[in-house]
Structures are given as structure tokens and as C-alpha cells.
């Protein structure tokens, strides 16, 4: 099975406090630690496990800038055979639909049976997988947490409300968006990344993809992020202040009065 | 102003909470709008009459192929009925995530997801507010709705609107081909676990801030000292450190404790969506800007790895 996994380079929120820049049009990106979108690691792991069992190969693709190459290498260190970097000044300011259009062009340059995305990325739209599927006219299932390979089909479980699983049968080729928890993504160390450091990663721009610049990028975007701002803090929590001992004493009193300590 | 539609989730004739939240969102797009509710399924007269208690117009779309809301089939049904410049509101839950993005492409409409507020429309621009980075920052996002839009609304943020009673219009006869390349088989219920956190009065709830599986022991010690049970956020279950039955949230359990201790949890809407019944919420987090502090009653800025053992000691001494 030939599998394409779409991955995004995102700021690692566990490592960073997100601050807004002075113009208010972006977050402070300078000191951010970046990593692969959490969901995408699960997708790559699942693809590798499927190929281990059923043969084929895994390709990882990202739309980004030169720095995005590092996330491709990381996923290749996990076991993806090929990487593909889609980058061009003309891609800047693309909305989710622009990103999906770029990925579609990349899909059409290959011969894939299955395309995977993460269920969502840092911006929380959860949009690219479903858009890509619709553009390709492939069937789609989101929030997938179980995959069984059949003949020309897959049996997939979607995680729905309450942690219940909606089981579907879906024809290949198809697009699946992967939910966290489907597997345990393998760890990659520095050594693994070094091993793939010299593997060549092809770079494709607008003309390589046969796209005219007007169909992607800022001008084509119908959804535009205007600015960032800090939400107004409503009432918010009463923050307990003082020495640790004082804070703990206050908290214990509160917990007692609310029935929190039996 | 374009026509506004709201897709109604329902089961056994009962409407989902989102049904009247979407109406509230629609009224923020256009206060005077006569919003059309869309109800799909098989044998849906009860759901349609319920929807007609608050929507001026209800489209009934009754068909065997829609007996389970398979997004691909629903998409086909909607494509044969929606006007090109319509604005469709969906809940941003596991169904809306499945349907919305692809539908917007097929309609050639704009798509915005997880919208938490709406500032109105100016010309062809719909002004929305979204959050990024699990609520650490907000953004103003503008959508060009000249060719219609699909807008996924975050559940639980708009106050359900009352609306006015209306009429059911049967659209079932106007559907085209509903065949699909994805077929629904069944829903498998989540497994029960060793504890039932939905019955707990006091929960010590652990998030990714616990950092390491070995540190979970301190959470159990604190819970024992308090007479509480241990619950957790999703990443703890994804890492297989605790069983799924302990997960609080939209894809886990809905809990109704008296006291909820959120330890190293950022406060995403999918997590807080499982905390009901207005408990006394205590949040301990090392990031003073963590969104959990906006919903908690009492907050402590601290490292839980230090704070938990200290408070446990003191409670044991009581
Ligand atoms: C400085 C800047 C400005 C931007 N301005 C705007 C703007 O004004 N309006 C706007 O709508 N968007 C804008 N974008 C683009 C936007 O941030 C996203 O790239 C796009 O909307 C898709 O990301 P998402 O988080 O919504 O993806 P989701 O749909 O939530 O992600 C789901 C999955 O899609 C795949 N995926 C997502 N992005 C990529 C990618 N780049 N490469 C490969 N796979 C991917 C991954 O598998 C991911 O798990 C801007 C981006 C930057 C960096
Ligand atoms: C469809 C869908 C369904 C979902 N369902 C659920 C669900 O049911 N339940 C759920 O929980 N999530 C769910 N999620 C995931 C959700 O979006 C968040 O990713 C998740 O809730 C984050 O968990 P967290 O708060 O533990 O981790 P994070 O968001 O990573 O937050 C960790 C917090 O701990 C703090 N911290 C770190 N170290 C320390 C320390 N030493 N001391 C104190 N504080 C520290 C950090 O400042 C941060 O605020 C779902 C997502 C999707 C897409």
C-alpha cells in the first residue's frame, strides 16, 4: 500500500508560553520551539505499521518553508521512506483550502492508495483532511482510531462523543484524519535523525505542481486571520497568593468548606 | 442577506443542546434572520416538531439512507438542496468536523471552524472570533461569504436562543443520488472501567503537566488522602498511562462532581465539555495564562510535581 501522510510544523505549546507580537498580527515566533503536530505523529506511526504488515511505502509531505524540512526528517527517522516539501513564496497566506489544494496537487503527482492527515493542528480547524478528500473526490473519515485493511477497502473506527466508536467500511483510495491514541508513536532520538540527514528531500513550488499562483496563497484565501488578541479575562479564578504553606492552608480550608476533603 | 441554515443533531426525537445554540449564533450573524433548521434521518417527525418550536422553518429530510448520520450521505443530501450562497451552521463536534470541510469544498463556499463568537456581517464579510493554541490567544477571522459559507460553531459557548415557532417543510422528495463510498456499520460502546468517575463527588484530575507515568503515584496518594477518585485529560489516556474510563471530556466521560481539581490541565473545550454540574474547580498550573484559570473558581500558579506532595502531606496531617 502506498501511503501519503500530511504533516505540519507547529509551535510546541507544551514548551512555550504563547505571546502576541507588538503589532498584534502574529504570535512571537522567534523563540518558539517547533515540533511536528501531535496528531501527525500518530498518523505516521499508523502508516508505518500498515506498511510493515501489508507492504508498500510511506511518504510524508508538508507545506511550509525551508525550516519545515526538519519535521519531514523527523518523520523519516520514524520510518517514512520519502519526504516531499511544498514551498514557494506564492503559498504564503494560504487558508486551509489553499493548503488542501496544494496537497491535492502533490497527491496527483504520485500514486497513493491512502492519504492520512492529523485530526487537527495547532489552529484547531480540523479542516485540511476533509477538504483534500472532497477535492480529490475520495471518501473521507475523520477522527479515526482503528484501521483494519481489507480487499480494496478499509474498516475504520471513528472516535465519536463519549469515546464510543463508529465503525465504517470505506473504499480505497481514501483520506483519513487520525485521532491521537490510535497507537503509541515510536520515539526518535538524535541518532535516528542523523541517519536520514543526507537523504534528499525533493522541493516543489507552484510551477512544479502545475498551479497558477492565483489559486493558492493570500489572494485566494477566503478566510483571513486579521489579528491576534488576548481574550478578556471575564471573572476568572481567584488566584491564591502567598508562601506555599499559606496557599496550601487556604486551599485546604476552601476544600473542606466545599466538601472536597472527606 | 443570504439565507441561514442550522443543521440539527438529534437522537430518539430529542434535540442536541447545539440545536438552539446554533440559532443563537445565527441571530448574531443577522438578528432579523428567519433561520431554517435542517433535520435529516429516518422517521424524524418528533425531531422536526421539536425543532419547529424554535425555528421559523424546518426542512424535513427523511430517507432510509440517512437513518444514521453518515457525513458523506448527509453531504449529498444537502448538496441537492442548499442554495449556492447559503450560510450553514454546524456544531464543531465529531459530526461537524466530519461533514463541514468537505461540504464547503463541494459547495465552493468559505469554511470557518470552531467559531466561539460572531461580531456580525459587513458587506460580504462575516466577522468571527476563534481561539488558537488551546485558548491561549484569540483571533479575529474574517470570512468572505459572497459564495456562501459553512461555519462550525463550538458547542457550549452560545447561550441557547428561544426563537419562534414555525413550520415543517418536507424536502424528502427533492433528494438526488445518496449512494456513498463510506458505509456505516455500527457504533461500539466504550468499555466500562474499574472506577466510575461519573459517580465521584471529588476528582483529582491529572493532565499532561504530570510529565511522567511514574509521577501518577502522587496523584493517587493525594486522591486517597482527600477521599477522591483520579480522573485525567486525554493525553494521559493516549499515552496509555491510565485507562480510557478515567478520561474526562467530550470523547470521554461527563462528570458531575462537587469539587474538581484540575492539575496540570490547560482547559481545552473538549476537556471542559465533560465537566458539568457547576463544581467548585481548583486549577493548579505553572502557566499563569493557562485558559483553565478562566473557568476555575480558585487558581494556584505552581509546579504540580512540587505542589501535589506538599498538599498531600498537609492533608494527611489533618
Ligand atoms: C503567518 C501565517 C499566516 C497565515 N494566515 C492565514 C490566514 O489569514 N487565513 C487562514 O485561513 N490561514 C492562514 N494561515 C494558514 C493556516 O495557518 C494553516 O496552515 C491552514 O489553515 C491549515 O492549518 P490548520 O491548523 O487549520 O490545519 P488542520 O486542518 O487543523 O490540520 C489537520 C491536518 O491537516 C494537515 N495539514 C495542515 N496544515 C498542513 C501543512 N501546512 N502541510 C501539510 N499538512 C498540513 C496535517 O495532517 C494536520 O494534522 C497562515 C499561516 C501562517 C504561518
Ligand atoms: C475530537 C477531539 C476530542 C477530544 N476529546 C478530549 C477529551 O474528551 N478530553 C480531553 O481532555 N481532551 C480531549 N481532546 C484533546 C484536547 O483538545 C486537548 O489536546 C487536551 O485536553 C489537552 O490535555 P492537557 O490539558 O492535559 O494538556 P496540555 O494542553 O498540553 O496542557 C498541559 C498543561 O499543564 C501545564 N503544566 C505543564 N507542566 C506542569 C507542571 N509541572 N506543573 C503545573 N502545570 C504544568 C501547562 O502549562 C499546560 O497548561 C480532544 C480533541 C479532539 C480533537
Question: What's the topology here?
Answer:
The complex is a heterodimer of chains A (262) and B (318).
Chain A: E1 2-6, E2 9-11, E3 34-36, H1 38-54, E4 57-63, H2 69-78, E5 82-86, H3 96-109, E6 114-118, H4 128-136, E7 140-149, E8 153-159, E9 165-171, E10 174-178, H5 190-195, E11 203-204, H6 217-220, E12 223-229, E13 238-239, H7 244-257
Helix pairs in contact in A: 3-4
Chain B: E1 4-7, E2 10-11, E3 14-15, H1 18-29, E4 36-41, H2 45-51, E5 57-62, H3 71-79, E6 87-91, H4 94-107, E7 110-115, E8 117-122, E9 125-132, E10 137-144, E11 149-153, E12 167-170, E13 182-188, E14 202-206, H5 216-226, E15 229-232, H6 234-238, E16 259-263, H7 269-272, E17 280-285, H8 292-295, E18 298-301, H9 304-317
Parallel strand pairs in B: 1-4, 1-6, 4-5, 5-12, 6-11, 7-11, 14-15, 14-16, 16-17, 17-18
Antiparallel strand pairs in B: 2-3, 8-9, 9-10
Helix pairs in contact in B: 3-4, 5-9
The complex binds flavin-adenine dinucleotide (2 copies).
Keywords:
heterodimer; A: 262 residues; alpha/beta; Rossmann fold; 9-stranded mixed beta sheet; 28% helix; globular; B: 318 residues; 7-stranded parallel beta sheet; 5-stranded parallel beta sheet; 9 helices; 25% helix; elongated; binds flavin-adenine dinucleotide
Description:
The complex is a heterodimer of chains A (262) and B (318). By secondary structure, chain A is of the alpha/beta class. Chain A has one domain: HUPs (Rossmann fold), CATH 3.40.50.620. Helix content of chain A is 28%, strand content 26%. Chain A has seven helices and 13 strands. Chain A has helices at 38-54, 69-78, 96-109, 128-136, 190-195, 217-220, 244-257; strands spanning 2-6, 9-11, 34-36, 57-63, 82-86, 114-118, 140-149, 153-159, 165-171, 174-178, 203-204, 223-229, 238-239. In chain A, strands 9-8-7-10-6-1-4-5-11 form a nine-stranded mixed sheet, with helices on both faces. Chain A has a two-stranded antiparallel sheet with strand order 2-3. In chain A, helix 3 crosses helix 4. Chain A is globular and about 65 Å long. Chain B is an alpha/beta fold and 318 residues long. Chain B folds into two domains: 4-174, Rossmann fold; 197-317, TPP-binding domain (Rossmann fold, 3-Layer(aba) Sandwich), CATH 3.40.50. Chain B is 25% helix and 29% strand. In chain B, the strands form four sheets. Chain B has a seven-stranded parallel sheet, with helices on both faces. In chain B, helix 5 (216-226) packs parallel to helix 9. The N and C termini of chain B lie far apart (65 Å). Classes of the chains: A alpha/beta (262), B alpha/beta (318). Chains A and B meet through helix 3, helix 4, strand 7, strand 8 and strand 9 of A and helix 4, strand 7, strand 9, strand 10 and strand 13 of B. Bound molecules: flavin-adenine dinucleotide (2 copies).
Amino acid at each position: 500500500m502506498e501511503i501519503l501522510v500530511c504533516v505540519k510544523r507547529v509551535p510546541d505549546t507544551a514548551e512555550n508560553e504563547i505571546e502576541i507580537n507588538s503589532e498584534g498580527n502574529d504570535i512571537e515566533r522567534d523563540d518558539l520551539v517547533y515540533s511536528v503536530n501531535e496528531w501527525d505523529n500518530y498518523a505516521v506511526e499508523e502508516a508505518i505499521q500498515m506498511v510493515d504488515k501489508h507492504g508498500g511505502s510511506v511518504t510524508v509531505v508538508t507545506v511550509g518553508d525551508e525550516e519545515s524540512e526538519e519535521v519531514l526528517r523527523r518523520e523519516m527517522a520514524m520510518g517514512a521512506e520519502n519526504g516531499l516539501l511544498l514551498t514557494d513564496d506564492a503559498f504564503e497566506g494560504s487558508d486551509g483550502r489553499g493548503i488542501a489544494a496544494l496537497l491535492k496537487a502533490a497527491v496527483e503527482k504520485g500514486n497513493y492508495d491512502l492519504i492520512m492527515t492529523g485530526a487537527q493542528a495547532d489552529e484547531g480547524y480540523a479542516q485540511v483532511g476533509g477538504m483534500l478528500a472532497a477535492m480529490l473526490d475520495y471518501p473521507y473519515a475523520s477522527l479515526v482510531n482503528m484501521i483494519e485493511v481489507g480487499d480494496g477497502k478499509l474498516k475504520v473506527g471513528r472516535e465519536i462523543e463519549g469515546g464510543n466508536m463508529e465503525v465504517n467500511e470505506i473504499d480505497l483510495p481514501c483520506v483519513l484524519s487520525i485521532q491521537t491514541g490510535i497507537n503509541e508513536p515510536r520515539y526518535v532520538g538524535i541518532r535516528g535523525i542523523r541517519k536520514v540527514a543526507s537523504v534528499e528531500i525533493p522541493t516543489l513550488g507552484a510551477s512544479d505542481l502545475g498551479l497558477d499562483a492565483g489559486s493558492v496563497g493570500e489572494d485566494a484565501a477566503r478566510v483571513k486571520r486579521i489579528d491576534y488578541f488576548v481574550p478578556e479575562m471575564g471573572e476568572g479564578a481567584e488566584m491564591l497568593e502567598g508562601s506555599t504553606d499559606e496557599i496550601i492552608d487556604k486551599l485546604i480550608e476552601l476544600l473542606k468548606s466545599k466538601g472536597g476533603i472527606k | 442577506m443570504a439565507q441561514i441554515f442550522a443543521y440539527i443533531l438529534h437522537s430518539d426525537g430529542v434535540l442536541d443542546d447545539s440545536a438552539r445554540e446554533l440559532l443563537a449564533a445565527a441571530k448574531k450573524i443577522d438578528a432579523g434572520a428567519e433561520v431554517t433548521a435542517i433535520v435529516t434521518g429516518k422517521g424524524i417527525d418528533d425531531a422536526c416538531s421539536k425543532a419547529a418550536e424554535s425555528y421559523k422553518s424546518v426542512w424535513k429530510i427523511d430517507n432510509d439512507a440517512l437513518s444514521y448520520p453518515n457525513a458523506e450521505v448527509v453531504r449529498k443530501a444537502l448538496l441537492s438542496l442548499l442554495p449556492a450562497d447559503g450560510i450553514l451552521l454546524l456544531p464543531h463536534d465529531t459530526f461537524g468536523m466530519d461533514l463541514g470541510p468537505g461540504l464547503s469544498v463541494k459547495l465552493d463556499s468559505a469554511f470557518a471552524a470552531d467559531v466561539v463568537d460572531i461580531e456580525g456581517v459587513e458587506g460580504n464579510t462575516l466577522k468571527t472570533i476563534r481561539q488558537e493554541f488551546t485558548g491561549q490567544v484569540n483571533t479575529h477571522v474574517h470570512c468572505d461569504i459572497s459564495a456562501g459559507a459553512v461555519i462550525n460553531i463550538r458547542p457550549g459557548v452560545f447561550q441557547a436562543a428561544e426563537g419562534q415557532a414555525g413550520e415543517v417543510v418536507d424536502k424528502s422528495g427533492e433528494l438526488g443520488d445518496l449512494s456513498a463510498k463510506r458505509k456505516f456499520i455500527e457504533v461500539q460502546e466504550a468499555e466500562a472501567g474499574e472506577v466510575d468517575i461519573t459517580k465521584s463527588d471529588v476528582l483529582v484530575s491529572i493532565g499532561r503537566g504530570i510529565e511522567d507515568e511514574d509521577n501518577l503515584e502522587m496523584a493517587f496518594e493525594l486522591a486517597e488522602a482527600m477521599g477522591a477518585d483520579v480522573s485525567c485529560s486525554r493525553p494521559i489516556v493516549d499515552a496509555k498511562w491510565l485507562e480510557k474510563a478515567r478520561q474526562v471530556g467530550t470523547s470521554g466521560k461527563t462528570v458531575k462532581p462537587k469539587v474538581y481539581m484540575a492539575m496540570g490541565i490547560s482547559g481545552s473545550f473538549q476537556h471542559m465539555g465533560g465537566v458539568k454540574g457547576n463544581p467548585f474547580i481548583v486549577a493548579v498550573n505553572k502557566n499563569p495564562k493557562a485558559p483553565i484559570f478562566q473557568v476555575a473558581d480558585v487558581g494556584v500558579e505552581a509546579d504540580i510535581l512540587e505542589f501535589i506532595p506538599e498538599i498531600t502531606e498537609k492533608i494527611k496531617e489533618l
